[in-house]
């Protein structure tokens, strides 16, 4: 969470100076690798750069998202590689990073026997704010997340949605320059998820705070994020703007109310390659005449046309297996198989190593 962690800081090399936390990237990693005991690899040579704005960090459970966040906060040491946050080295400047970054952990780690006001004020103090300023900031943060009227209730009496809001409020309380939110909609119903996403979008738009949202729910990421970083088995799949991920493809989607199979046969006779997709057909574009060929085929069969449009890419496509030539193994498929085989081992190794941090003070 927000605030600095006690302990001995890593010594800085002689003559080294801390970087100016005003770099073009809010975070960047270079060949970042994290291996747990038992040769379980959580991050595997990850190199990525994230610009200011709201960025989605997406991947299946066990992809390495939480491990990456803990390294960025200086709570875990990487096996190899480097990571920087706001221009600061995550090993050399961990305490300073935690003073500039608000962290919302995935799991329920709130003390049940204190009020929201007491807890958020405490976290603001831990981030370095004076007592009076911490109380004011706590009140503002709780008001922003919609808990102003309930701020004097003990946290243990809150619903799951209210607890998630408390975690977001404490991440804001230290006046951060960057928020790291780990599965912020975890455990929420659809209405609660929508409300949380609206809060996150407002933080980016109204407060000008950069946000990194780790999630395995691609639909949520698409709603609020400017950029997306997709990882799988600790490796980078792609990093780009949301618009680039969802831009128009060279494929037409055609739907008819009846006669889909007959239309597919007709299009094949015309030299096209239609593929079933739900209630319709996906037809790769072959020049400017493809629409005319489809229109003429539909009219010739007398079918009721429901839809004909250029299809847009969808975020989930980046996690699908790519076609490979016959006789060659699918790297993505073998990676996923390896990931599934090691997920439980990774969890046990992480627990034994004591890396599951629920509260940073």
Task: Write structural notes for this entry.
The protein is of the alpha/beta class and 361 residues long. It is built from eleven helices and 14 strands. The chain has a six-stranded mixed sheet with strand order 6-7-8-3-9-10, with helices on both faces. It has a four-stranded antiparallel sheet with strand order 2-1-4-5. Strands 12-13-11-14 form a four-stranded antiparallel sheet. β1 and β2 form a beta hairpin. α3 packs across α4. It is elongated, with a radius of gyration of 24 Å. It starts with 26 loop residues before the first strand and ends in an 8-residue tail after the last helix. The N terminus and C terminus are likely disordered.
Write the layout of secondary structure elements.
Blueprint (H helix, E strand, L loop, with lengths): L26 E10 L3 E11 L3 E5 L6 H8 L7 E6 L2 E2 L4 H7 E4 L11 H11 L4 H14 L15 H14 L4 E5 L7 H18 L2 E6 L2 H7 L2 E6 L2 E7 H4 L2 E9 L3 H10 L5 E3 L2 E5 L5 H12 L3 E8 L18 H23 L8
Parallel strand pairs: 3-8, 3-9, 6-7, 7-8
Antiparallel strand pairs: 1-2, 1-4, 4-5, 9-10, 11-13, 11-14, 12-13
Helix pairs in contact: 3-4, 3-5, 4-5, 9-10
């Amino acid at each position: 969470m927000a605030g600095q962690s006690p302990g001995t800081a890593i010594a800085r090399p002689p003559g080294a100076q801390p970087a100016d936390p005003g770099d073009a990237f809010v975070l960047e990693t270079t060949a970042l690798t994290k291996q747990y005991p038992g040769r379980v690899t959580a991050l595997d040579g990850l190199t990525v750069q994230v610009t200011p704005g709201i960025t989605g960090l997406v991947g299946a459970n066990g992809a390495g998202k939480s491990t990456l966040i803990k390294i960025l906060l200086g709570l875990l040491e990487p096996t190899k590689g480097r990571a920087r946050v706001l221009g600061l080295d995550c090993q050399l400047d961990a305490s300073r990073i935690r003073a500039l970054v608000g962290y919302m952990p995935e799991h329920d780690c709130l003390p049940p026997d204190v009020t929201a006001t007491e807890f958020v004020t405490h976290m603001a103090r831990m981030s370095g704010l004076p007592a009076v300023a911490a109380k004011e900031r706590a009140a503002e943060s709780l008001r922003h997340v919609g808990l102003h009227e309930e701020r004097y209730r003990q946290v243990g009496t809150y619903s799951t949605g209210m607890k998630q809001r408390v975690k977001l409020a404490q991440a804001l309380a230290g006046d951060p320059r960057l928020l790291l939110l780990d599965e912020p909609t975890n455990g929420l119903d659809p209405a609660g998820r929508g409300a949380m996403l609206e809060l996150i979008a407002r933080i980016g738009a109204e407060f000008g705070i950069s946000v990194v949202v780790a999630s395995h729910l691609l639909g949520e990421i698409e709603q609020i994020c400017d950029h997306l970083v997709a990882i799988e088995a600790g490796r980078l799949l792609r990093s780009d703007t949301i618009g680039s991920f969802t831009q128009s493809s060279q494929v037409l989607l055609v739907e008819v109310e009846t006669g889909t199979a007959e239309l597919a046969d007709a299009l094949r006779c015309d030299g096209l390659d239609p593929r079933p997709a739900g209630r319709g057909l996906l037809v790769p574009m072959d020049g400017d005449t493809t629409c005319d060929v489809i229109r003429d085929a539909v009219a010739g069969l007398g079918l009721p046309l429901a839809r004909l449009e250029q299809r847009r890419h969808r975020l989930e496509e980046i996690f699908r297996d790519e076609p490979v030539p016959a006789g060659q193994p699918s790297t993505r498929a073998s990676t996923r198989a390896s990931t599934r085989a090691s997920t439980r081992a990774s969890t046990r190794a992480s627990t034994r190593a004591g890396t599951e941090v629920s509260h940073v003070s």
